[in-house]
Amino acid sequence: MNEIHCYERRHKLLAQMEEGVAIIASAPIQTRSNDTEYPYRQNSDFYYLCGFNEDNSILVLVKTLDSTKMLLFVEAYNAEHTLWNGARLGVDGARERFRVDEVHDVAEYGGMIKEILREHVNLYIDLFETSEILSQAKAAAQSLRETRGVKRHIRSIHDVTHLIRKMRLIKSSKEVEAIKKAIALTMEAHHKAMRECNSGMREYQLQAIMNYVFINGGASAEAYSAIVAGGNNANTLHYIDNSDELRNGELVLIDAACEWKLYASDITRTFPINGKFTDPQREVYNAVLDVQLRVIEAIKPGVKRDWLQTYSEELLCDALIRLGVLSGDRKTLMEAKEHKKYAPHGIGHWMGLDVHDPCPYVDEWGESLAFEAGMVMTIEPGLYFRADDESVPEAFRGIGIRIEDDILVTSEGYENLSSMIAKSVEEIEVMCKR
Ligand code: GLY
Ligand code: MN
Ligand code: MN
Question: Cα–chain-centroid distance for residue 300?
Answer without folding.
Answer: 21
